[in-house]
Amino acid sequence: APRPDGIRPAPRATASVAARQGVQERREARQAETAGDRGGPEALGPGARQRLMAAWGGRIVASLERAKRYPRGMRGGGVVRLRLTVSHSGELAGVRVARSSGYDRLDRAAVEAARRARLPEAPEAMPAGAYPFTLAMRFAP
To answer: Which UniProt keywords are given for this protein, alphabetically ordered (predicted)?
Structure first.
């Protein structure tokens, strides 16, 4: 019913700001996935490359966790930071300990896990090349 003072209430918001941002991020990610066919890295929207790298890095971490083996007879735990270089095709191009756990055996186990892991390919929208990642591996008895 119309209000007697002629003022209409403001329309209700149908989506929250966070929901709209989520939709925009998903749209950009979809565009980024197909951008490789339309012009390469410069076709990626702002932030899209970072999101693709973060998603790929997450899949790499999952691969490392599956390949990780806690050294037999070890009692201590620790965190090893690895510096990996991964090619677009998922080949390990290089690995080194960026920050030691303080235990040589854990550091070696982390490097061996990286060499043993089946690493995922890069998202199609990423240009060919090798990409650096610094990732932490946590070991606990």
So the answer is: Membrane, Transmembrane, Transmembrane helix
**Closest among 12, 54, 37 to 127, alpha carbons compared:** 37
Ranges 18-32, 56-70, 78-92, 97-111: which has the least confidence: 18-32
Crossing angle for the helix pair 17-35 and 48-67, nearest 10 degrees? 80
56 and 120 in contact (C-beta within 8 Å)? yes
9 domain-assigned = no
Residue 11 covered by a domain = no
pLDDT value, residue 67: 97
Higher local confidence (pLDDT), 106 or 3: 106
Task: With respect to residue 135, please indicate whether it lies within any of the assigned structural domains.
Answer: yes
CATH code, domain with 113: 3.30.1150
